[in-house]
Design goal:
heterodimer; A: alpha/beta; D-Maltodextrin-Binding Protein, domain 2; 2 domains; globular; B: mainly alpha; Arc Repressor Mutant, subunit A; Four Helix Bundle (Hemerythrin (Met), subunit A); three-stranded antiparallel beta sheet; 57% helix
């Protein structure tokens, strides 16, 4: 694709020589990381102008693929590299320019944690990390990467404790609960096929309705059977909705439309603030994990590219990692963010210990009550129990068409 | 309907034939210009739509020459603007500049209220075949369609049997199929179908190359090698159509001397991946990746050296690598906006 557009948006990229004022950096992403308090802090620390271009996950992926001229930094998840890289929307990140690369932990670099290998189902981050000599992406280490690994988490579902039927409450938490008949009509799923369909597949498998050979890479027959099972549930009124942003997810529960749903951690912050009595499940089948990060637009160059590298490095400096911890996200070089967290905060978010005192949220003074404990335990016990990564499977294009049919059924 | 005037065969050399072709071309660019001018002025084309020659030529069923000329005239008339990308931007009806808008080009997006029948070409079936192939190869990536023969016949202003003839050729390519109820069905495109085509090609193409190689003319190979060298030096000079020509050279021309025509037909039936790649490169206005080009060069180099074993090995390796690349491209299609497709493409799912 050519460097195109005559729009406002691309001026800083093309005419840096005339105005030597502040560089403006455009970051494309979702509300999960593009937040005003982060934007202000980075502007202050870096002396640049920062513009956040925010949309839902599918719109961000589409703009990322089709309009690399509209952003310098793409901020989303590793599985979206499967869309952006073949479309040549990105340029490799030169590791020599990432100061703290050696601090990034082994999970995104080797798919291992505390010397244990992690799940290999789904779009494993390290398999799309390193740029090879022929321009393709693979696990073999090189000096250039597709995306700088930053935030990550182990996701599952959230449920209102009071809504849970006693029969389920007596059993270990399971993805099967998303399909429990007792909760019919009060269930929601994430809308993106790379995420929501995996949650649904975990639920269908845990319910004993189907078994998949590789849950991160379904065949056409498995996709057809999965969708037809889900459409059956939908026609019986099982699902109350689909959500695209964490705020939508939180709203579904706060408005009492939903009692159980797949969820992202920042939504839990909202539920906490709304005073709901809920729990983030640690399903016995394991979590659906994701790794977020940032990539460079193919067309970024000159001063703006320098500023983009400054912004990537800033994310590994500690402040941003601490801000992410307070909404339940881990950062890839967590030790660096420890200095920006109170000991009590670190103990709660990373070590899974009961809060010694009241703890702050991302922007609020009081979020976590003293004595409260993070669901699922410490970093290793949560990230070490991955069932499957978010996935763009071989038949993803087919899955997306069928998933849309399900959503519209 | 304007018919192409044929130069009488009895008349000497190329001059008359050339004059007829020139006259024909002149008429075509004028007609393309008039069609587009009217559509833009009436606001039937989205302002900012990026127009590039190849797809517009396909829609009008012409070569790119008259399209280029028509674009130049529209540009001079202020209805198209240049920008930093390839092609032109459609202006607002008042002539002002719009933001670039990339969308698949079709007779619908070009605001043609009737199919551009006025350009009737020497062969209607050629024109219809190319238009159907373009619509189907884009469409199958976005779902499962039924192709309505009579709607298509009406859209093209031809008989159903002409449409059927073109559809039969697409069925031979494996792009569409005919159901038990005689409905023409296209898509949905799956990774499995693409992988199956590659599997067939990996089995059959090396055998065909081995059979064809003794009859391959040295100058054909020299030309093909020079062309691929040029492409490697300047990949940006190769657009989607250029890439398709390179693919045809290696995967059709170099195999064509094999005596077993049934073998060649079977290979021809497994060319859906080439169509996917063409649609992909067209959608993103992408140039070929260097790996594709260097793999092609390796096969041609061995053929030039007369080393058929090395050439067939290199062809197999190329097809294997190409399969991986094509399957990756297929995933990308999942995030693209659904294009406006012609009315004869009726969505089933």
């Amino acid at each position: 694709m050519p460097d195109d557009t005559s729009g406002e948006s691309s001026r800083p990229a093309r005419a840096p020589a005339v105005h030597r004022g502040k560089v403006e950096l455009r970051v494309l992403g979702t509300t999960s990381t593009l937040q005003e308090h982060i934007r202000k802090q980075a502007e202050k620390d870096l002396g640049i102008r920062l513009r956040f271009i925010i949309d839902d996950s599918s719109a961000v992926q589409r703009a990322g693929v089709m309009h690399p001229e509209s952003y310098e930094i793409y901020d989303q998840w590793f599985h979206s590299i499967d869309y952006l890289w073949p479309a040549r929307a990105l340029q490799p990140i030169d590791l020599a320019r990432i100061k703290r690369w050696q601090e990034v932990n082994s999970l995104p670099r080797a798919n291992s944690l505390a010397r244990h290998k992690c799940a290999s189902a789904g779009s494993v981050p390290v398999d799309r990390l390193y740029v090879q000599a022929d321009g393709s992406l693979a696990r073999k280490a090189s000096e250039r990467i597709s995306m700088l690994p930053l935030t990550h988490n182990a996701d599952s579902f959230v449920y209102l404790r009071d809504a849970l039927p006693p029969a389920l409450a007596a059993t270990p938490e399971s993805w099967a609960w998303l399909l429990a008949p007792e909760l019919a009509g009060r269930v929601a799923l994430q809308a993106d096929a790379a995420i929501g369909a995996i949650d649904a597949a975990l639920a269908v498998e845990a319910s004993g309705l189907m078994q998949f050979a590789d849950i991160g890479n379904l065949t056409i027959e498995e996709i057809d059977a999965l969708i037809s099972t889900l459409i059956g549930f939908k026609r019986r009124g099982h699902f109350a909705g689909f959500w695209s942003t964490f705020a939508d997810a939180a709203q579904l529960m706060i408005a009492n439309k939903v009692a159980i749903q797949s969820v992202w951690s920042p939504a839990a912050v909202e539920l906490q603030r709304a005073g709901l009595h809920f729990r983030l499940a640690s399903p016995k089948e394991g979590y659906r994990a994701w790794f977020g990060g940032m990539s460079l637009s193919r067309v970024a160059k000159g001063r703006v590219l320098d500023a983009a590298y400054d912004y990537l490095n800033w994310w590994l400096d500690g402040w941003a990692g601490a801000a992410m911890a307070r909404q339940g996200f881990y950062i890839s070089n967590s030790e660096r963010s420890r200095g920006y967290l109170d000991a009590a905060e670190w103990a709660y978010w990373y070590d899974g210990k009961p809060a010694e005192s009241e703890l702050p949220g991302p922007t609020s003074k009081n979020l976590i009550a003293a004595g409260q404990q993070r669901d699922g335990g410490n970093y290793v016990s949560r990230m070490g129990r991955i069932a499957v990564w978010n996935s763009v499977m071989d038949e993803h294009n087919y899955l997306v068409r069928r998933w849309n049919e399900f959503k519209q059924a | 309907m304007i018919r192409r005037t044929r130069a009488p065969v009895s008349l000497p050399p190329c001059t008359l034939a050339q004059a007829a072709v020139d006259a024909d071309t002149r008429l075509r660019y004028r007609l393309i210009h008039d069609h587009l001018k009217k559509a833009i002025a009436l606001g039937r084309v989205a302002p900012g739509l990026v127009l590039v020659e190849a797809p517009v030529a396909r829609i009008f069923g012409t070569s790119r020459v008259p399209v280029r000329k028509a674009f130049e005239m529209l540009h001079a008339g202020g209805l198209l603007h240049t920008f930093e990308g390839r092609g032109y931007l459609v202006a607002h009806p008042d002539g002002s500049v719009a933001e670039p808008l990339r969308a698949p080009l079709s007779d619908v997006t070009l605001g043609l209220d009737e199919a551009p029948i006025a350009l009737a070409l020497p062969s209607n079936s050629e024109r219809i075949y190319h238009a159907l192939e373009a619509a189907v190869s884009i469409g199958i990536a976005f779902g499962h369609f039924r192709i309505d023969e009579s709607v298509a016949a009406e859209a093209f202003g031809v008989s159903r049997s002409t449409v059927r003839e073109a559809l039969n050729r697409l069925r031979d390519l494996g792009l569409i199929e005919k159901s038990a109820y005689s409905h023409w069905l296209a898509g949905p495109l799956t990774a499995r179908a693409v992988a199956h085509d590659y599997e067939l090609r990996m089995l059959l193409e090396p055998a065909a190359l081995r059979a064809s190689q003794p009859l391959l003319a040295q100058d054909v190979l020299t030309d093909a090698y020079a062309e691929i060298e040029g492409a490697i030096r300047d990949p940006d000079s190769i657009d989607a159509d250029g890439l398709q020509r390179l693919e045809t050279t290696l995967h059709a021309d170099c195999l064509q001397h094999a005596h077993n025509k049934k073998l060649l037909r079977m290979i021809g039936h497994a060319h859906m991946p080439l169509t996917v790649n063409h649609a992909f490169h067209n959608a993103f206005n992408l140039h070929p990746d260097v790996a594709t080009l260097t793999e092609h060069r390796a096969v041609l180099r061995h053929l030039l050296d007369g080393d058929v074993d090395a050439a067939t090995d290199a062809l197999g390796a190329h097809l294997y690598a190409a399969q991986g690349r094509t399957l990756k491209r297929l995933k990308v299609l999942a995030v693209l906006p659904e294009p406006d497709l012609p009315k004869y493409m009726q969505r089933i799912a």
